[in-house]
Amino acid sequence: MRKAKPKKRYLLPDPKFQDTLVTKFVNYLMEQGKKSVAYGIFYDAIEQVEKKTGESGLEVWKRAMNNLMPSVEVKSRRVGGATFQVPVEIRPERKINLSIKWLIDFSRLRGEKTMMDKLAAEIIAASKGEGAAIKKKEDTHRMADANKAFSHFRF
Questions:
Q1: List of residues 6+ apart from 90 with CB closer than 8 A
Q2: CATH code for 20-153?
Q3: What whole-number distance in Å separates Cα of residue 71 and Cα of residue 89?
Q4: Is 84 left (phi over 0), alpha (psi -120 to 50) or beta?
Q5: How does pLDDT run across 14-40, given as a tens digit for each residue?
Q6: Contact 132, 140 (CB under 8 A)
Q7: Distance from C-alpha of 62 to C-alpha of 47, rounded to nearest angstrom
Q8: How far, in Å, are 7, 23, 141 from residue 11 at the CA level?
Q9: Does an H or E element contain 37, and which?
Q10: Prediction pTM value
């Protein structure tokens, strides 16, 4: 176990929207340290979302993120030789991290040609409450609901 809790690292806001959540999203999107490429993909995707929906791209993205945030998840807990899936509440920080991760992962699995197109399509789908990332959230909630009987094993 660790001696001390690590210091919290704070992110700088992104250059275009002055939002730290955008920076966090871009950091998850980035591959092989290419941050400027990741920023380009994100900004182009937001622009494409604006063209397709006619609304502010950043607002649509934030709505998609809020739609994706799960409230409960299951954690494995060993009790007397048996492993139980115990539903637990999720910390606010982890809610954000999971929604970012799911949005990016399911964007990458889409069939469009470029990452910009994939991300834009997944953002639009998530903001409407549909798409693969939303399905993942619903599956997580369903799993927690199914294992509600084991909630007394919570630590």
A1: 70, 71, 72, 73, 98
A2: 1.10.455.10
A3: 6
A4: beta
A5: 999 999 999 999 999 999 999 999 999
A6: no
A7: 14
A8: 13, 7, 30
A9: helix 35-53
A10: 0.90
